[in-house]
């Protein structure tokens, strides 16, 4: 007898222990760990989905009558042994439910809401199988779950590459769908229908004739256009039984194969060669050594990555290259594609669910040996991993905010141990955690200290805005910055300007009574957007009209405070009417491909100034950009977060690094109201090492990472008092669990206490070693499910990157 261990998906009743099910005789030869299945659950007739994580032949010791596996949802496993083990580790490490970990490794398309079909790829199969498929060579997977013999035969087809599983969107308004028409008119029945028509119904006659010519399903819109019919005509024809409609997911465009010129490996500088050789040595030895590549901006880190990847491929291994979503610009993708061509698979949020699934399949079947992608690409099912590269390793977007709250770096290190392959973490401004590990020798340090082409790092002018703003005609531009912009533009060079706030004004206040217009759902002021003439909440998306009288005192003295990218764009239009400005922020990049279009236009010098939020700080490599201006360096400094200096330093260094990357020298102007702040001062001097030393001292004094570990607990309710109460009771419990050496901060309301009508309270545990803590939190995770029905949401977050 065979038994399956199944992790079931039962909301609010999750457990990380598998349930045992008996495998019915007919499924024995089909079942495999890593497949999804349907099983009966609980006392009634409830059916739930699950993952088979193991098979055993031993009868488990139980008095209960074991239930049987109901059906298999896959023909072949969707997760291999590595994936199953990774899920085990991730659930433990990130205090997550195993089911969430398993699901997170699969493309969205394979989760709920999609219809599964088998597609026949080879028509040369046994007739009794072939006849199951419709004229599109498709078969509902449902048919198989009802007939296990068939499922077995189809599974064999898939193994031989004669059939494959595909997913089609079901009831999803968002997905792009197209309607096909299938004609029911044949030479045999045409006259019968024609006889029923009135003599003068010439349009209907014509439609009948046209439908007769339709021998296979055609696109409805195309049919209408070509033959001059309207949707109403077709609807009537449908009612008359002349045709059928069918909806299909729009055809997935394979990645638009733009013309990318192949590139050859560059001759490495001595420093670059040194980095490549150290990593390839580890690669050859099958060592899972992590490396930290600390290279100043423009030092040629990407070329180092590419040549390491080439070595891995030459050894018959595969490579995974991770980049932050925001930096996943066409530039980096093109650089990888131009070197490795069709071997590259791409995984990022800009792809449709279908495109992502297609890329995932290519990887799974070994057709792609280089994967480039953002956070979730870390789960790419590469079987022969030779190297993992994580560019801009300090980026906060590498940490996932929802369960499982994993950090990509931790998963990368886990996979490298599994595959015995090196990991390269790269950055101009490594996270303090990583830099400290390199200090201790846990990571091996690699350094690129010079820019390519012998360019020095750009000169930085720090402008004290407390003084400069008084002299300037506009509040947001100092005369110094304006003057430099004019001079660089006169030389036909390009300028990048960064301002860390989108919209027009950051808030609206009544000057009579001080009333500030806030979001009704969140505890945050609404931002004025001039382009759409709306007030918007940047947390929940709430929008409303721009008020002209105060809601509180009815005064008309309403004023808008603060500056956003839209307002700066308007100022630029006045100050420098000749300059062509492109704006890049969340609002201008919402449409698919917008990001690419803006950068392409800027690269082709269709604009002089690129103005944007921090999304322009990273990865851009434009040779004609010689001036970078930071309009307000302080926005990230004032965040109530112990990492605010680190974040400020990183951001300023990154954005400064956009200037002077080719053979023209670059300049940077940083405007600040806190010019004495050490993070700003040291960023101006490009002095990462001194910043590291100084910041480490502070962290040591204050007891923060990397000296202490942190875990954040957050409770949210739709009732503020209850959220607070829950946190106080947790604190009391924790005091019993923790040793006196651990420190509990809070409970405190989060910076924005109310978001989307819920109230958030948090507490932070700082500790070095706590014997009881892990077990307590795991238990807390399970117990908190019971309270979820009453509206409580509890979040356990290990090593949080944000304390907002
Ligand atoms: P980083 O990622 O460190 O900021 P990049 O990899 O973008 O730097 O390199 C900066 C520029 O130098 C790029 O235009 C790149 O093509 C070029 N480059 C890199 N390595 C070399 C090399 N060995 N020889 C010539 N040019 C190089
Ligand atoms: Zn008022
Ligand atoms: Zn809101």
From TrEMBL:
Its cofactor is Zn(2+). Pfam families: DEAD, Helicase_C, PriA_3primeBD, PriA_C, Zn_ribbon_PriA. Residues 545-717 form the Helicase C-terminal domain. It comes from the Bacteria. Zn(2+) 2 binds at residues 519, 522, 537, 540. Zn(2+) 1 binds at residues 510, 513, 550, 553. It catalyses: ATP + H2O = ADP + phosphate + H(+); Couples ATP hydrolysis with the unwinding of duplex DNA by translocating in the 3'-5' direction. Binds 2 zinc ions per subunit. One of its GO terms (molecular function) is helicase activity. Residues 282-448 form the Helicase ATP-binding domain. Its EC number is 5.6.2.4. Keywords: ATP-binding, DNA replication, DNA-binding, Helicase, Hydrolase, Isomerase, Metal-binding, Nucleotide-binding, Primosome, Zinc. InterPro entries: DEAD/DEAH_box_helicase_dom, Helicase_ATP-bd, Helicase_C-like, P-loop_NTPase, PriA, PriA_3primeBD, PriA_3primeBD_sf, PriA_C. Initiates the restart of stalled replication forks, which reloads the replicative helicase on sites other than the origin of replication. Recognizes and binds to abandoned replication forks and remodels them to uncover a helicase loading site. Promotes assembly of the primosome at these replication forks. HAMAP family: PriA. NCBIfam families: priA, PRK05580.1-3. Belongs to the helicase family. PriA subfamily. Component of the replication restart primosome. This is Replication restart protein PriA. It comes from Ligilactobacillus ruminis.
């Amino acid at each position: 007898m065979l038994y399956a261990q199944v992790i079931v998906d039962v909301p609010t009743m999750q457990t990380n222990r598998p349930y045992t099910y008996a495998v019915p005789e007919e499924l024995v030869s089909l079942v495999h760990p890593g497949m999804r299945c349907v099983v009966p659950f609980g006392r009634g007739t409830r059916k739930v989905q699950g993952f088979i994580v193991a098979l055993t032949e031993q009868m488990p010791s139980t008095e209960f009558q074991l239930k049987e596996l109901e059906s298999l949802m896959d023909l072949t496993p969707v997760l291999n042994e590595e994936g199953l083990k990774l899920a085990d580790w991730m659930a433990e490490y990130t205090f997550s439910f195993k089911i969430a970990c398993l699901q997170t490794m699969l493309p969205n398309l394979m989760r709920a809401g999609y219809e599964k079909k088998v597609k026949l790829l080879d028509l040369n199969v046994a007739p009794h199988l072939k006849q199951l498929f419709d004229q599109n060579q498709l078969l509902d997977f449902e048919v198989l779950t009802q007939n296990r013999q068939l499922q077995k035969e189809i599974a064999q087809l898939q193994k031989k590459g004669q059939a494959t599983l595909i997913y089609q969107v079901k009831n999803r308004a968002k997905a792009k769908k197209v309607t096909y028409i299938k004609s029911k008119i044949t030479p045999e029945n045409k006259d019968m229908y024609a006889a029923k028509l009135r003599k003068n119904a010439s349009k209907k006659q014509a439609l009948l004739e046209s439908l007769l010519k339709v021998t296979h399903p055609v696109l409805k819109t195309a049919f209408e256009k070509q033959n001059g019919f309207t949707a109403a005509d077709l609807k009537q024809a449908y009612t008359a039984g002349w045709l059928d409609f069918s909806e299909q997911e729009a055809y997935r465009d394979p990645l638009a194969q733009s013309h990318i010129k192949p590139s050859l490996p560059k001759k490495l500088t001595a420093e670059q060669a040194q980095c490549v050789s150290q990593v390839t040595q580890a690669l050859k030895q099958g060592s899972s050594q992590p490396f930290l590549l600390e290279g100043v901006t423009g030092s040629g880190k990407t070329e180092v990555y590419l040549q390491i990847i080439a070595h891995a491929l030459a050894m018959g291994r595969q490579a995974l290259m991770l980049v932050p979503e925001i930096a996943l610009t066409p530039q980096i993708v093109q650089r990888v594609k131009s070197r490795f061509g069709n071997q590259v698979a791409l995984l990022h949020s800009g792809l449709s669910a279908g495109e992502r699934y297609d890329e995932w399949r290519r990887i799974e079947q070994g057709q792609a040996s280089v994967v480039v992608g953002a956070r979730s690409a870390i789960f790419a099912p590469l079987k022969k991993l030779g190297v993992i590269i994580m560019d801009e390793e300090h980026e906060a977007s590498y940490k996932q905010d929802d369960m499982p709250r994993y950090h990509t770096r931790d998963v990368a290190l886990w996979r490298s141990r599994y595959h015995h392959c090196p990991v390269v973490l790269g950055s101009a401004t490594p996270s303090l955690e990583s830099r400290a590990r390199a200090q201790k020798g846990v990571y091996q340090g690699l350094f690129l200290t010079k820019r390519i082409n012998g360019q020095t790092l750009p000169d930085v002018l720090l402008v004290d805005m407390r003084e400069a703003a008084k002299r300037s005609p506009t509040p947001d531009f100092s005369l110094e910055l304006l003057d430099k912009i004019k001079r660089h533009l006169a030389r036909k060079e390009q300028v990048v300007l960064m301002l860390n706030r989108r919209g027009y004004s950051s808030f609206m206040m009544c000057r009579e009574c001080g009333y500030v217009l806030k979001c009704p759902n969140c505890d945050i002021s609404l931002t004025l957007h001039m382009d759409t003439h709306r007030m918007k909440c940047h947390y929940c998306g709430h929008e409303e009209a721009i008020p002209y009288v105060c809601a509180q005192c009815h005064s008309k003295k309403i004023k808008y405070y603060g500056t956003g990218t839209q307002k700066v764009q308007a100022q630029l239009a006045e100050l420098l009417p000749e300059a062509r400005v492109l704006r890049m922020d969340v609002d201008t990049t919402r449409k698919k491909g917008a990001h690419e279009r803006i950068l392409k236009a800027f690269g082709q010098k269709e604009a002089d100034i690129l103005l944007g939020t921090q999304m322009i700080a990273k990865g851009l490599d434009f040779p004609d950009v010689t001036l970078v201006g930071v309009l307000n360096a302080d926005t990230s400094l004032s965040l109530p977060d112990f990492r605010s200096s680190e974040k400020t330093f990183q951001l300023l260094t990154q954005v400064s690094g956009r200037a002077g990357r080719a053979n023209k020298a670059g300049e940077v102007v940083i405007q600040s109201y806190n010019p004495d702040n050490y993070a700003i001062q040291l960023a101006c001097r490009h002095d990462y090492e001194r910043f590291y030393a100084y910041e480490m001292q502070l962290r040591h004094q204050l007891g923060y990472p990397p000296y202490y570990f942190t875990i954040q607990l957050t409770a949210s309710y739709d009732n503020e008092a209850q959220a607070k109460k829950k946190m106080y009771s947790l604190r009391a419990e924790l005091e019993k669990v923790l040793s006196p050496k651990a420190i509990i901060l809070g409970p405190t309301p989060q910076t924005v206490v109310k978001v989307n009508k819920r109230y958030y309270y948090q507490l932070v545990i700082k500790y070095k070693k706590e014997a009881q803590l892990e077990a307590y939190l795991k238990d807390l995770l399970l117990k908190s499910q019971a309270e979820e029905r009453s509206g409580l949401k509890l979040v356990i977050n290990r090593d949080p990157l944000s304390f907002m």
